[in-house]
Every structure is written in C-alpha cells, then in structure tokens.
Please model this.
Amino acid sequence: MKKILVPTDFSDYAGHALKVAAQIARKNGGEIYLLHMLELPHQGSDALGSGHDLPEIMLFKNAAINRLEDLMDDECLEGLKVSEIIQFELAFDGIMNVSNKNNVDLIVMGSHGASGFKEMFIGSNAEKVVRNSDIPVLIIKKEEGDFDVNKFVFASDFADEIKKPFAKVVEFANKFDAELHLVMINTPSSFKPTHVAQEIMNNFISNFNINKCSTHIYNDTNVESGVLNFTNYIDADLIGMSTHGRKGLSHFFNGSISEDLVNHAVRPVVTFKI
Model:
C-alpha cells in the first residue's frame, strides 16, 4: 500500500476518505495521488482536442486547482508526499486510467452510506470502480478518527476462485496486524453441516501465511444479513469481500446483494477483485 489514489469531489465524504488514506500512507511509508475529475459539458469536451485554454474550461480548471491547493494544506497530509492530478475525463475512466498509469496499490473513496450505493461519491461511477478495479478499493462511510483495523471480517464460500484475491486480503490484514475473521454464512437455501463448512475453510487457508486468523460459521436468513449481523456481533472494524468484475460480486454473493451490503454496512468496506 505504497501508492494510494484518493478521488475527490471536495465533499465531506471524500474528506473522510482522504483522512483515512493519509493514515494508511503514513503507517506504510506511502504516497497519495489526489485526483479530481473535470467532467465538462459536451461542447467543452469537443473543444478539448484544440487545447484546454478555452475561457470556460480554464475557469473550471483554476477553481479545481485552488480547491486542491486548499486540500494540500490539510493537517492530515503534513509530511506526506502528495501528487495533485486534474483530469479532463469521465470520472470512472479517469480513476481507472490514473490508477493503472501510476501502479496504484489502493483506491480510497468516500460514500454516502445507506442513502444508496448509486449515490456513492461521483454517483454510479463508484459502483463501476468497485466492480471493475483490479486493485483493492476501500470505501469509507463516515469520519473514522483513528483508522485502526483490529478485527477484519472476510465472508466467502471459500471456493478455489477466491484464492487469488484472498492473497491480497491476507496482505491487507497482515499490514494492519489485524485478526482476520473468516466467516461462512449458512442460509436455509445454501446450508452446510458445521463439520463440512469447517473442513472447507481449513483446507482453503492451509497454504496462506496469516498472522492472526479465526474461522466462523454463522447461520442467518440470507447472506447479507449474516455478514452484517456477524460483523456487529464481533464489533469488527472492517468488512472485506471479493468482486467478480462486471458479473457483480463473487459466486458466494450471487451478484445480487452487493449494493445492499455496501449500502447497509456502517463500517468501512474493502473489495478485492477475483
């Protein structure tokens, strides 16, 4: 987590994300890429081919530069290496391009929380980032204060396809010296006897070097409720889940509860693409 991308629209939610990103960067000797996307009116975008010097475009750009400069003075960034980036591009495309170009390790984004996944920072673009980013995406819901991850919940069916993103989960947990609470949610429609579920989990983690780890089987009416209720039960600091690109979340989530889970979780959520 040496290179952290923080897209900002200068909202309070983006500010909460920036403060968390700064803490992560400071703990890991990392740097921050602070990105603001200028989605210009259609006629302005057409004019970009002849340069970014039209009066209207310069007005937007200068205003963004001034606001980024103000952010750079935030005490949370003191002593950190921070690069300011302004992109004339659609938000989702710009975030993906900047993260790939700079070999970013983590994207940290703000969210409105339960008001709706599609109302997350810069609208539905955040959903696209979560579902399509090849690197982990950390979603921050509120002012976090000290971002200490002591209890990290990762829920899965622990199928073989999860092993690749799970390596990043382990790396993330070990970086924070967090206890990784692995949980399999048992539901009426997908029930496994305890000994079967436990064997699946034990076999899954046998080849991973996890500093602190515990396994759990939790019964609930559906997966989303199970994840949220278990997280509340152990008072976890962070929820992790795997995503399946354009297909939605991993087979475990069946691509149907991703939006509800992210909406309803009060705690931060970090996603890892399969």
